[in-house]
Structure formats: C-alpha cells, structure tokens
Design brief:
heterodimer; A: 312 residues; alpha+beta; 6-stranded antiparallel beta sheet; 4-stranded antiparallel beta sheet; 14 strands; elongated; B: 267 residues; mainly alpha; 8 helices; 75% helix; globular
C-alpha cells in the first residue's frame, strides 16, 4: 500500500512537474530549430554526423515522436493527479481565488484532450476551382465558384483575396457566401478557408455555337465522343488530346480540328484554392482557453493587488 | 525626422539623467528629469498612431512597429515605476537601478529598430494580418514581454547583488513583474494567437517555430512560478529561470524571425 502511496505522491509532485516542464521546453525548443517532416537524406546532408542521432530520437517528426509524446503523457498524468489533490485540499474553502490554479490546470488538461481530438479526427481537403467550376463536398453539398477577386491597397499590394461561392444541395441553391482571408465560411461540417490562388493555362476550343476552356486533366464531350486533355505547351501552341472512345492520343496545333470544333487559342485563368477543414478539437480548445483565462484572472488578480497594497 | 527619432534622442537624455540620479549624493528630484522617460514613451505612441493612420490599421504588423510598440510598453511601465520611486525613498534606489536597466533595454530595441536590419517602410499589412485577433494577439504579447523585461533586469540585479535586503527586494520585484506579465502574455501570445490562427489558416496550433518558441517561453515562466511555490531555497534558481525566460522571449522575437522560417516570417 505504501508503495502505491509513494508512486502517487511522486506522480503528483511539483518536483516532477518541474522536471517534465524543463524537459519538454528544452526538447521542443531544439526541435523547433530543426526542419520537420523532411526526407532522411535532408538530415544526413544538413546535420552530417549528428543526423543518425537526430533520426533515432525522432527529431525529424518530433511532435509525434516517443520523446515528445511520452513526457507529455506523464505531464498530463502529473497535472491530473496534482489537480485532484489540490481540489480535495481546497474543498470547503471559501476563497474563490484558491481555485484559480485549479481552473488553469483543468483548462490545460482540456486543451491537451482537444489536441488529441484534433490529432486523430481533423480532416483537411483542398478544393481547387476556376470561375464557374464546381466541386462536391461531404453531405452532398456542391460548391460553385462564381468569382475570385484580389482587393488591393492604393499602392497596388494585396489587401484581401475573396472567393464568391454558391452552395447547392439536391439541385437547390442554399446560399451565396464570400470566403476571404480571415473570414472562413461553413458548408456542411467543413469550414472553407481562402488558402491560396494561382493561374493555370487553358486551351480555348470552339466552333459549334459555344466556346469552352480546358486545362490539363479536364474532359469535354461532343456527341458520343469524350476528349481528355493530357498535356499543353503554350510556347509551341500544342495540345495533347486523347479520344476516350477510340483510345487514340494526338498532338494538335492551334487551328486544328477537335470533333466539330477547332483549337482557337490558349489563355490563362485564375484559380482559387479553398481549404475545407473539419476540426472537432477547436471548440473544446476554446472552452479550455476560456477556463485558462478565468483561472489566470482568479490566480493573479488578488496576488497583484496584494503586492500593490504592500508597496503602498 | 520622425517622432520615433525624437523619442530616441529624448531617451538618450533620460538615460543620462538616470545615471546622474543613480550617482551617490545625487538622488534629489529635478523638475524635468523624471519627465524625459514618459516624454520619450509618448513620442513613440504618437509615432505608432501616425503610422496606424497611414496604413489604416493598427501599426503592429512588422518588426519595426513591433519593436516600437514593445519599447513604448516598456517605457510606460518604467515611467510608472519611476513615478512611484520618486514618492517612496525607501525603495527609490533599487527602483532607479531597474528603471535604468529597463531604459537601456528600451534604447537597444530602438537602436535595432533604426538599424538597416529592420526596414521601417510604411506598408499596409498583408491580408492574413488584417484581423482584430492579430492586433490583440500582438499587442498583449508585447505588453507581457515588457513586464518580462522588467523581471529580467530585477532578476539580474538580484543575482548580482551581495546585499540580502536588495536581493529580497529584487526577488519580489521579479515575481511581481512576472505575476503581471505572465497572464497578459498567456492570453495575448498563446490564446489570442491560437484563435487568430484558427480564423486565418484553420488550425489553432501547428508547431510553427514561432509558436513552439512562444510555448517554450511560456513553459519557462511556468517553471519559474512552480519553482517559487516549491520553497524559498530555490529563490536563486528561480531568478536564473526568470532571466533565461527573457532570453527565450528575445529569441522567440528575433531569433525565430531571422534564423528560422515559418508562418510568422513577416513578424
């Protein structure tokens, strides 16, 4: 029994907290100076003789390594036991400020739990759209990019990037939204962020009463024939097309025929890169942070007031 | 000539006047001397307000503006300490040393801000920085760091002093400065920073070098507070940790910006 009591006392001690905080701070600080997630060759080239040690200890993916997870788990246990011990000790205490550190501790425990939720359940997907294009999202939502614009300051530098989108479900328009930097929008369970933008080359094909623009990887159908763009060279003005029906691949030039149409030219178009994120850890993290703020207020306000009183 | 340049010149005068006041037998208050440090601080605030008007946003979005803001925050704390020291002769001497040390730090920050290492061109912020959360994140983080700067000077003076009474006073000042700075830094750097990151990039934490080093700084001050509660025998060690905490604060600000790359490279 005494052995368990000793283990419990050691695991809930401030001394262990001090050792773990020091270890986590030093190793995390070191890991932040080493680029994460590169190929082993990078570390061998950059860190020479130290590379085998770094790779063995997991410093190439430190925040998912044993050397980080293990002390963090021990720290969580230490914090949990210490908090329970403190709350038991304070039971019946009338001063609310004595619960301040407990609230901070509970907030940090909840934050670690939120981090675990994020680590295992977070979803992320990129949606790359040119104006007029659509993409299907989970929950049978369809998002169509109506327009993409760059807002600029007077000196010409970018002020914001905005994507005007329409959200459809079962053929019905549900809403029109504007996704901008710092202003994400919710579609189903995903939150859409303005992640990036760029441009891509397109071939202009027309001649049967309409005109279409196609980028590499896109297809178009005419009658029972479907054509897929396999490649494009805007310097040589050539387009590599595969006829899905016949299986024949051809390299065509500007003015050549495609079905009943013709290649009329090449141009570039702007694409918007949206990032869809689902993170079930965020709201628990917000609650955790609110607890930490409340705990900080309860802990430090009386101490600061007392210090000021003493110096009067 | 900008208001920041005038503020820098006034700060040099304030430093000279502080040296005069620290000298033995020269502790008497002169009418204009105590006003130099607040004047320098006010000039820095005016500089930031004018820049904010020019960019139509709160001017805390690049290294120059951050250094100016940090110096102004530190100047405000030191002015208040100086004001109190002039009214309490018992602790006037110690406070004046800390005010002098803090003013030297302020001088170094402003010297760095005026160096070619830090461009001071007035530019509007990039889209990701146009957020109220960013303003609260940066400004509160720097106010917290200004208190850490005071704790650093007090901790150093406590460590270097051989007089037990001065060591005790400096220990208390170190603790008070951290007790004020720690919650402000926590809320600003970590909490509001996480909320801003969620709005800007869709993730509240990403182990970016700046985020990680801000956490390391926070853990160091957390360590200080835990050393304090675990007994007075560790008072000297806790002062060493307080001093190291500010060195980490500086590394988080400058070292990460200049040596490591990440999402905060513009900061």
């Amino acid at each position: 029994m005494k052995v368990f009591q000793r283990i419990h006392a050691a695991l809930s001690s401030v001394r262990l907290a001090v050792v773990l905080i020091t270890f986590i701070a030093l190793t995390a600080g070191l890991a932040a100076c080493i680029p994460q997630g590169r190929l082993p060759e990078y570390y061998i080239h950059s860190f020479k003789a130290a590379a085998p040690v770094l790779l063995l200890l997991g410093f190439d993916h430190f925040f998912r390594s044993f050397l980080f997870i293990m002390p963090l788990t021990l720290f969580t246990l230490n914090l949990l036991l210490c908090t329970v011990k403190r709350i038991r000790r304070h039971r019946g205490t009338t001063t609310i400020s004595s619960y301040g550190p407990d609230l901070i501790h509970v907030g940090i425990l909840l934050l670690i739990a939120a981090g675990v939720l994020t680590l295992f359940l977070r979803e992320e997907r990129q949606i790359i759209l040119a104006e007029g294009q659509s993409a299907q999202l989970p929950g049978n939502y369809i998002v169509t990019l109506k327009s993409f614009e760059t807002l600029r300051y007077a000196d010409g530098s970018p002020r914001n990037w905005r994507s005007e989108i329409e959200v459809f479900r079962q053929g019905r328009i549900l809403s029109k939204k504007t996704v901008g930097v710092n202003s994400p929008q919710r579609v189903g369970y995903l939150r859409l962020y303005q992640f990036s933008f760029g441009s891509e080359q397109t071939a202009v094909i027309g001649g049967w009463g309409r005109e279409i623009r196609l980028a590499v990887g896109e297809r178009f159908s005419y009658g029972d024939e479907t054509f897929e763009v396999l490649g494009m060279d805007t310097k040589k003005l050539t387009l590599t097309l595969r006829n899905s029906k016949t299986g024949i691949t051809k390299v065509l030039r500007l003015g050549d025929s495609v079905g009943v149409g013709k290649i009329r030219g090449f141009s570039s178009r702007t694409i918007s890169v949206l990032q869809g994120v689902y993170d079930p850890g965020f709201y628990p993290a917000v609650i955790a942070l609110l607890l930490v703020i409340l705990g900080l207020g309860l802990t430090f306000t009386p101490k600061i007031l007392q210090q000021l009183k003493e110096t009067e | 000539m900008t208001f920041a340049t005038v503020a820098f010149a006034v700060l040099i005068l304030a430093l000279v006047s502080q040296i005069v006041r620290i000298l033995p037998g020269r502790s008497g208050t002169k009418i204009f001397m105590p006003l130099l440090l607040p004047a320098s601080t006010i000039l820095l605030v005016i500089d930031l307000v004018l820049r904010s008007i020019r960019i139509s946003f709160v001017a805390v979005t690049n290294t120059y503006e951050a250094l100016t803001f940090l110096s102004a925050a530190l100047g405000a704390i030191l002015s208040w300490m100086q004001f109190r020291a002039d009214r309490d002769e018992k602790r006037a001497k110690e406070s004046r040393y800390v005010v002098f040390g803090g003013s030297l730090l302020m001088f170094l920050f402003l010297a760095l801000a005026s160096s070619p290492l830090v461009p001071n061109t007035v530019r509007p912020p990039v889209p990701a920085l146009r957020s109220a959360w960013l303003v609260m994140h940066v400004s509160l983080a720097f106010v917290g760091e200004a208190f850490f700067a005071v704790s650093f000077i007090a901790a150093l003076m406590g460590l270097l002093s051989s007089e037990p009474d001065r060591r005790r006073k400096m220990d208390r000042l170190t603790y008070t400065a951290i007790a004020v700075g720690y919650p402000i830094f926590t809320i600003g750097a970590l909490i509001f920073g996480a909320i801003w990151a969620q709005f800007a990039w869709g993730r509240y934490w990403g182990w970016d070098p700046k985020e990680t080093w801000a956490l390391v700084t926070w853990l160091t001050y957390t360590l200080y507070l835990h050393l304090r509660i675990s007994g007075s025998r560790r008072r000297k060690l806790s002062q060493v940790v307080a001093a190291v905490g500010f060195i980490f604060t500086l590394f988080t600000f400058f070292g990460v910006n200049y040596l490591l790359s990440g999402l905060h490279s513009y900061g």
